[in-house]
Specification:
With about 210 residues, this protein is α+β, with helices and mostly antiparallel strands. It contains 5 helices and 10 strands; from the N terminus they run αβββαβαβββαβαββ. The protein folds into 2 domains: about 25-40 and about 70-160, Aminopeptidase, CATH 3.40.630; about 160-210. The protein has helices spanning about 5-15, 45-60, 85-95, 145-155, 170-180; strands at about 25, 30-35, 40, 75, 110-115, 120-125, 130-135, 160-165, 180-185, 205-210.
Length: about 210
């Protein structure tokens, strides 16, 4: 007989898990964190609209079929069930070998954006106010997802300067400028040990700071 736990694990590997609706306790601050930072029911993503229309079309001959309602974009603190998808997203966006499992120790300074069971964005920061990663899946960009995630991180450290490094050719510079980040240093070859050969993104970086 097949172990039910293995079946459940395989299913979760394919489909992910349902969003967690329980309060979680932060190992770092011992605070109880809400299951959702925000549930955005207003933003309508083009890809999601296409999926919705496709479901309606495929079931057009089934008079009893009721198309499930459009899902919100959920913003929540990072949880163990997010790690695999987040690592995959970060490795695809930046460079191979990224593992952010240790962010589970400081969930207060994280935000994960999901659509249903799919992780579509993530932003991570250390307790001292250094933003390590912020990215959104290519198909889900231009919907202000990164804007909200960055705003949330800034609220998590209201009394500290916020710093980050960004590639000199990264379009995210525009977002950081909107929030008041200013370049403090230009570092030649900062990403040389991370980015593989042939990467189009510049390996030089700006150190940006938002002064409080």
């Amino acid at each position: 007989m097949v172990n039910p736990a293995l079946i459940r694990t395989f299913k979760e590997t394919l489909l992910g898990r349902e969003p967690n609706t329980m309060m979680i306790r932060s190992p770092y601050s011992n605070r109880l964190l809400k299951p959702f930072i925000w549930r955005d029911y207003e933003t309508r993503i083009q890809k999601a609209l296409v999926m919705h229309q496709l479901l309606l079309y495929c079931n057009r001959k089934n008079q009893r079929y009721k198309c499930p309602p459009m899902k919100p974009i959920d913003y929540c603190y990072i949880q163990p069930e997010h790690i695999r998808q987040v690592n995959h997203l970060l490795c695809d966006t930046f460079w191979p070998g990224i593992d952010i499992s240790d962010s589970l120790l400081t969930p207060d300074y994280t935000v994960v954006a999901t659509y249903g069971k799919l992780v579509i964005g993530v932003a991570l920061m250390t307790p001292i106010g250094y933003i390590t990663y912020i990215c959104v899946s290519p198909y889900w960009r231009r919907y202000k997802i990164a804007t909200f995630m960055l705003y949330h991180l800034l609220q998590a450290c209201p009394d500290k300067d916020i710093t980050l490094h960004v590639s000199a050719t990264n379009n995210a510079m525009l977002l950081y400028n909107q929030f008041g980040f200013k370049p403090e240093e230009y570092i030649i070859g900062f990403y040389s040990k991370y980015m593989p050969e042939g990467t189009e993104e510049s390996k030089n970086a700006f150190l940006l700071r938002l002064r409080r």
